[in-house]
């Protein structure tokens, strides 16, 4: 049994003009110790897809489909039941490291109160465990760090503290929402190394969210590319990097910096994704796609399934011939 099994998950959010689909029939699985990367441009639904796993969606959001964690259905849980899932089973490092720590409370207060409530341990034990966690994420002098406040740390250190806090109740699944985006390249590399080590040492499963496919290529086992709330392509990271089948994935890969290239300007995908609530019935990428044909629009697309759980949503499949895995299942 997979640790996490998401099937046909859809999320509708309330907007000024009624309900709009932010997540549209998402399906994926995650095993213990695996790292899944979720990539996509701003507004594609990356954060919403993670918040759904914690029952933290905006008020009035409608959720359908199924999310099973260790076999337990999470869709439809009461707030009391969600409390048992959050922290101890699934926890999250939120998108903005600058605002996710309270500026007026010491790191000790923020870490240990959480541990005492959720793990039922004494303050003394919580302090010992918090020091260990901070050492584990390579915070120098954990004792001093516990007595300090968020403003006394650099962005990279704050993000490490957020990761330590997210790990405080020994979750099996960590959701890391753009944990390194605001950081410089060296600090970002340190966070990636840290997450990879935590996965190896604790058999932690991680969902790593970012708009940067380059970052995901180095640490993830699997990738899921989101566009306008839809899963455009998913599969093993190695497969997707070598044989992307969706034009949007190819566009994201083309826009990565090429170290050996002389080109000074990065290629970007022209145009913008459709606004929330204005996704077309057919391919949501059609307006920006140079391969678009009449059959791409007007009717819902059906995914194509290939070997090794490689899946993509494109009616034309323009890169079929170059693929080494072109056998449809
Ligand atoms: N509280 C809300 N109510 C209504 N719509 C929302 C709300 N929060 C986010 N949205 C919309 O839901 C869609 C998905 O947002 P989400 O935050 O998941 O995107 P994202 O992929 O994480 O983007 P980013 O890379 O900018 O973080 C967007 O169109 C966003 O504007
Ligand atoms: S379905 Fe058509 S428009 Fe959409 S990505 Fe494929 S080729 Fe492009
Ligand atoms: Mg986001």
Summarize the structure.
It contains 10 helices and 12 strands.
Give an overview in words.
- With 329 residues, this protein is an alpha/beta fold.
- Helices cover 29% and strands 22% of the residues.
- The chain has 10 helices and 12 strands.
- It has helices at residues 46-51, 79-85, 107-119, 123-136, 142-146, 155-167, 185-202, 213-219, 237-242, 247-254; strands at 4-15, 18-30, 35-39, 62-69, 72-73, 90-93, 173-177, 205-210, 222-227, 230-236, 304-305, 311-312.
- The strands form 2 sheets. It has an 8-stranded mixed sheet with strand order 6-7-8-3-9-10-12-11.
- It is globular.
- Mean pLDDT is 91; it is low at 325-329.
- The structure holds adenosine-5'-triphosphate, iron/sulfur cluster and magnesium ion (MG).
Helix content: 25-40%
Binned strand content: 15-25%
Shape: globular
How can the largest sheet be summarized? 8 strands, mixed
Could you give the order of strands across the largest sheet?
Answer: 6-7-8-3-9-10-12-11
Number of distinct helices:
10
- Distance from N terminus to C terminus (CA atoms, Å) equals 22 Å
Gyration radius (Cα, Å) is 21 Å
- Kindly name the structural category: alpha/beta
List unreliable stretches of 5+ residues: 325-329
| Mean model confidence by pLDDT | 91
Q: How do the helices and strands follow one another from N- to C-terminus?
A: EEEHEEHEHHHHEHEHEEHHEE
> How many runs of DSSP E, i.e. beta strands?
12
Bound molecules: adenosine-5'-triphosphate, iron/sulfur cluster, magnesium ion
